[in-house]
Amino acid sequence: MKISNLVIAAIWIYLLADSWLQGRELPELMNRVPLPEVSQLFISVFLAIVFLLSLWITFWQRHTLMEDLPLITRSVDRRFGAGTYRNFLHRFRPIGISILSGLILGTVGTWSTYASTRSQAAYLISWIFLAAALGLLLALVVSHRHPPALR
Q1: Tally of structural domains, the chain
Q2: For 143, which of 25, 126, 147, 150 could close a Cys bridge (C-beta 3.0–4.6 Å)?
Q3: Residue range of the domain that includes 57
């Protein structure tokens, strides 16, 4: 087994566990934040914009997303060999971990908020993560039908 596979697994486990913990702590953190009264229409439009921006930017940048970081790419490739960064990134699947993390944080945050404080600010933050994750998910699905596909 490659050491890079262990690094990828450790990062994924950390990010997924951290998403769960942040979702659980979100209601208490946001309970102290005063949020001005806003209409449901405003919140709905705002979440739709987050979803659409997440979808559009991810799909639009799908061919260079995370692969066009010249300083990091050169540094990693110089240290570990040509193509190492791109290979690592392909196996890491940053879009996949972003989708899962966002879905976990948003779902757990919504559930925790409902079970405890029912803070409007905590609901909003949870739903922002859900909207962004769903936008990424749709971009992933659409990219497989219209290459280049996201990984």
Answers
A1: 1
A2: 150
A3: 3-28+40-145
